[in-house]
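Q: My labmate handed me this sequence with no annotations at all. I'd like to see what the chain might look like in three dimensions before we decide whether it's worth expressing. Could you predict it?
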Amino acid sequence: MQIRRTFLTTFASLALGAAMPSWADSITHEMGVTDVPDTPERIVVLEFSYVDALASLGVAPVGIADDNNRDRIIPAYTDVIGDEWVSVGTRKTPSLEVIASLQPDLIIVDLTRHEAAYDTLSEIAPTIVLDSLGGDYFAALEQMEVIGAALGRADEAAVRVATHKAVMDDYAAQIAEVSDGVVAQFGVTNATGLWLHSPMSYNGSLLEMFGFSSTMTPGEGEVYETNYVPTTLEQLSVVDPDILILGKYADPAFTDGWVGEPLYENLKSVSNGAVHTVTAHNWSRLRGLLAAELMAQDLIAIMSQAGATN
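A: Here is what I predict for the chain of 310 residues:
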């Protein structure tokens, strides 16, 4: 992503005409330390998990990388932040011009997607970098605290995280009644393939927190040390979970083509009627506190459907 120096200079000049912010906090993040305004008011976020974090704190961003699809910002978020944000394009390639035009005083970005654009984004506004795509559930909790500090709402963020943990502990107690010793696996499928989310991923670590086991343990020559693993039917038969949770981005999905094949029909989850479909977007893309609470509710519903809970 490139942006002309003259373009940045123009927006820098515009900014000089506005009231200078009060610089109060130095925020440590994945790319270093950034000084941020005392109470930033014009925030641009380039990943859905950061929308989740802002919604959790009741803060509305001015710009969101919504993949040019406003419906990807779910009602659980818009009920809090409203719908007045400006789309800055896709998460992979957001528009630097649109971001600059919003004159933000804080930009929150993802390490994997935006590392190469960090210097340019930092010329537009103070930018903090977190690891959403590569992080697990517990990293998301830590990132929530960093975002809270960057917003000048550290105390509120700490309270929100504590409240979230209490809610999740209650869900975990319900799920633990049936999760002990049960292998549960989440994956996403579209028209061309299946990707399992390993124990290192957001979803995989969350399932483990709920007491489920995983057979995606790394071994010599295996690739399970990554978060998202492209998986063939033969590889799925090795994982062979008791419960298979699928997020489908296509209908029919790639995995639907396996129906009727002996290797697929002999999977434990298939033969026991324990293949469950969830909303792929919520499970795979959001990765935040509110998202985790929605996933927990889905898990309880799945257990209930299976007759495994009271």
